C-alpha cells in the first residue's frame, strides 16, 4: 500500500472542516456525543491515529479485497541448517584455542570477535524462535477497515450509527481529495462493511486455531 503522508491528511481535513455538509454532520455528531471537529490528523502510519486521521485517509487508502494466509513453522524446516551453522561458528569464536579471520572487507580485532559472538548468539536464538512460529496474517481492506471502525465508534458513543452523518463526512473527504463522486454507501452497505470486518476477524482466528491444533508438536 502506498504510504499516506501527513501533509495529505492535513490538507483533506482542512477542506472537510470548510465543507458545508461536513460541518452540519460534525455538528450533529457532536451534539450526540461524538465531537471530533477539534481534532487534527497526526499519524499517517496509523499507530495511534485520531478520528481525523481515519476520515481524511478514507479516499487515500486502497479499496482492495482482504487476504488471509497462515505462516506455518513446517514450511521453514529447511532453514534450521542456518541455526546449526551459526551455533558451530559461535563455538569456534568462544574457543580460546581457535583463531579466526573473517573476510568481509576489513579485519576483525579480538574485541570485535568477542562482540560478534554475542551478536550471533542473540541472532541465533531469535531465529530459533522464529522457525517455531505459527502465524496468521490477515491483510484487511484498508478503506473498509477505516469505515467499519468509524461506524462502530459512532454507535458506541451515540447509541446510533448515524449513517447520514458518516456518509456526509466520507463524501466530503473524497471531494477534498479531488474526487467528484465518492462511493455511494447506503445504510445496508455500511452495515455489511462493518459486519464483514467483525465476522472475518472471528472466522479467521477460528480457522487459524483449527489449523495450528492439527500441526505436529513443537520440538
Q: Would you kindly provide a written description of the structure presented here, covering whatever features stand out?
A:
With about 220 residues, this protein is mainly α. It has two domains: about 5-65 and about 140-215; about 75-135, no CATH class. The chain has eight helices and two strands; from the N terminus they run H-H-H-E-H-H-E-H-H-H. It has helices spanning about 5-20, 20-30, 50-55, 80-95, 110-130, 140-160, 165-175, 185-215; strands at about 65-70, 135-140. It has a two-stranded antiparallel ribbon. Helix 1 (about 5-20) crosses helix 7 and helix 6 crosses helix 8 (about 185-215). The model has no long low-confidence stretch (mean pLDDT about 85).
Task: Give the overall pLDDT as a whole number.
Answer: 87
User: What gross morphology would you assign?
Assistant: elongated
Whole-angstrom Rg: 26 Å
- Helical residues, percent: 55-70%
Distance N terminus to C terminus? 37 Å
Find the structural class using helix and strand composition.
mainly alpha
Count of domains: 2
Strand order within the widest beta sheet: 1-2
Q: Provide the β-strand percentage band.
A: under 5%
Poorly predicted regions are none
SSE order: HHHEHHEHHH
Q: How large is the count of helical segments?
A: 8
Count of DSSP E strands?
Answer: 2
Structure characteristics:
58% helix; single chain; 2 strands; elongated; mainly alpha; 219 residues; 2 domains
Would you spell out the secondary-structure blueprint of this structure?
Blueprint: H1 6-18, H2 20-31, H3 51-57, E1 67-71, H4 80-94, H5 110-130, E2 135-139, H6 142-158, H7 163-176, H8 187-213
Antiparallel strand pairs: 1-2
Helix pairs in contact: 1-3, 1-7, 2-7, 3-6, 4-5, 6-8
Amino acid at each position: 500500500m502506498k504510504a499516506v503522508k501527513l501533509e495529505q491528511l492535513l490538507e483533506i481535513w482542512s477542506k472537510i472542516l470548510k465543507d458545508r455538509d461536513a460541518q452540519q454532520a460534525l455538528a450533529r455528531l457532536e451534539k450526540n456525543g461524538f465531537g471530533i471537529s477539534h481534532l487534527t490528523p497526526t499519524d499517517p502510519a496509523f499507530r495511534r491515529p485520531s478520528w481525523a486521521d481515519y476520515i481524511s485517509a478514507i479516499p487515500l487508502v486502497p479499496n482492495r479485497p482482504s487476504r488471509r494466509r497462515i505462516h506455518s513453522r513446517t514450511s521453514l524446516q529447511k532453514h534450521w541448517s542456518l541455526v546449526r551453522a551459526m551455533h558451530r561458528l559461535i563455538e569456534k569464536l568462544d574457543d580460546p584455542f581457535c583463531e579466526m579471520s573473517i573476510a568481509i572487507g576489513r579485519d576483525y580485532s579480538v574485541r570485535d570477535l568477542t562482540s560478534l559472538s554475542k551478536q550471533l548468539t542473540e541472532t541465533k536464538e531469535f531465529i530459533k524462535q522464529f522457525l517455531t512460529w505459527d502465524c496468521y496474517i490477515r491483510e484487511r481492506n484498508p478503506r473498509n477497515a477505516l469505515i467499519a471502525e468509524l461506524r462502530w465508534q459512532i454507535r458506541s458513543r451515540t447509541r446510533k450509527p448515524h449513517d447520514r452523518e458518516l456518509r456526509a463526512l466520507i463524501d466530503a473527504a473524497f471531494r477534498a481529495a479531488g474526487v467528484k463522486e465518492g462511493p455511494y454507501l447506503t445504510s445496508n452497505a455500511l452495515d455489511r462493511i462493518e459486519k464483514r470486518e467483525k465476522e472475518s476477524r472471528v472466522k479467521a482466528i477460528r480457522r487459524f486455531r483449527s489449523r495450528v491444533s492439527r500441526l505436529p508438536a513443537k520440538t
